[in-house]
Design a protein that fits this description.
By secondary structure, the chain is an all-alpha fold. It contains three helices and no strands. The longest helix has 14 residues.
């Protein structure tokens, strides 16, 4: 039998896809969470500026008398 006959006899089953846990191997989905983008290392001027502001904010209360 070819595939068409099997589909005619049994129909098409639109069920759940494969295992979802296999797709989660610790990958980062958004660029905003990648270290290169957070630190501004990828070359974007605005990202470098934001990284500078983040370091200033982080260092603001680091025990400066």
């Amino acid at each position: 039998m070819d595939d068409f006959d099997i589909i005619l006899e049994n129909g098409i089953h639109f069920g759940r896809g494969g295992d979802k846990s296999a797709s989660k191997d610790g990958k980062v989905k958004t660029k905003a969470k990648k270290k290169g983008y957070v630190t501004g290392a990828h070359g974007s001027g605005s990202a470098r500026q934001k990284a500078k502001y983040r370091t200033q904010r982080a260092n603001r209360h680091k025990g400066n008398p």
